[in-house]
Each structure stands twice: as structure tokens, then as C-alpha cells.
């Protein structure tokens, strides 16, 4: 297996924030988002199916919706993270309920860690994340150097 090198990328001042909540956590996310509305409205919001619809109704803010999590929405968000089209992930997941799409959830959390994006898994961490002075300014972070990775794989194939 090839060793992964890293490079630096810059998150923009206007972040693309993904918002996800399992069924038993949706009301918590909605209440949290109402409290954080003034911060969220300055950014681009993306959410999985029902969560996105509920956020749009409750906040009156535009929310781009993927499909529902169990139907592939978690994977759609994960793909956008890998494509560097999501800058922050707020994911209120339910640690008490088994999820039929648990492998998708684990893959989403893994890809967020791989691409080093800020991740909040509950209300407290989401409050800390959105209150950070880095939220509204460009911010450098370390990410995998995919170009270097491809070159290493090409060299190994030769």
C-alpha cells in the first residue's frame, strides 16, 4: 500500500456546511439550528433528505438536499467531502439506536476524518464549532495529497 503524503488546502470564509440528523435527533438539530441561525445564514447549507426539508421549513433558509441518509444521502455527503465540496460536517447521530445504514454512517465519519474537515457529532461540539473565530474566515488545513498518491501508484505499476 502506498504511503499517503499531505498537502495544505484552504477552507473558504463562506463555508459549505453539511447538516445531518438521525430520526431521534432531528428535533435537537432543528432547535440547535434555530439558535445558530444567524451564523448558519452566512454559509451554504447542505443536508440529507428529510433533515434538509425540515431545516428549510424551520429556518426559512435555502438548504440543498441530497436524498435521505438510508437511501444514500450519507454517501452523497461523503462523496462531496472527498471532492472537497463540503467544509464542515454537523452530524447529530443517535448512539442509542442501531441504524440500518450503519456502514454508510461509519464511511461518512471516516471520510470526514481522512479529509480533515471539522466535525461536530452533538449539540455541544456543534456549538463550539460554530462559535470558533475560524468559522467566518479562510482557514488552512492539512489534507491528503491525492496527486502525489496517484504518482506513487503509477510509479509502482511501472
From TrEMBL:
GO biological process: methylglyoxal biosynthetic process
Domain of life of the source: Bacteria
EC top class named in words: lyase
Annotated keywords: Lyase
Active site, UniProt feature: 74 (proton donor/acceptor)
Sequence ranges assigned to domain MGS-like in this UniProt record: 9-158
Catalytic activity: dihydroxyacetone phosphate = methylglyoxal + phosphate
PANTHER family attached to this UniProt entry: METHYLGLYOXAL SYNTHASE
NCBIfam families: MGSA, PRK05234.1
Name listed for the protein in its UniProt record: Methylglyoxal synthase
Organism: Stutzerimonas nitrititolerans
Gene transcribed to yield this protein: mgsA
Amino acid at each position: 500500500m502506498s504511503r499517503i503524503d499531505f498537502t495544505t488546502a484552504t477552507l473558504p470564509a463562506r463555508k459549505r456546511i453539511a447538516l445531518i440528523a438521525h430520526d431521534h435527533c432531528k428535533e435537537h438539530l432543528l432547535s440547535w439550528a434555530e439558535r445558530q441561525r444567524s451564523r448558519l445564514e452566512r454559509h451554504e447549507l447542505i443536508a440529507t433528505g428529510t433533515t434538509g426539508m425540515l431545516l428549510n421549513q424551520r429556518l426559512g433558509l435555502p438548504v440543498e438536499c441530497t436524498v435521505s441518509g438510508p437511501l444514500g444521502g450519507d454517501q452523497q455527503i461523503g462523496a462531496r467531502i472527498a471532492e472537497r465540496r463540503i467544509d464542515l460536517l454537523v452530524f447529530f447521530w443517535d448512539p442509542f439506536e442501531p441504524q440500518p445504514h450503519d456502514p454508510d454512517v461509519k464511511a461518512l465519519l471516516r471520510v470526514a476524518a481522512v479529509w480533515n474537515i471539522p466535525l461536530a457529532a452533538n449539540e455541544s461540539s456543534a456549538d463550539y464549532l460554530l462559535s470558533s473565530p475560524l468559522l467566518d474566515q479562510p482557514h488552512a488545513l492539512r489534507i491528503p495529497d491525492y496527486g502525489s498518491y496517484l504518482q506513487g501508484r503509477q510509479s509502482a505499476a511501472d
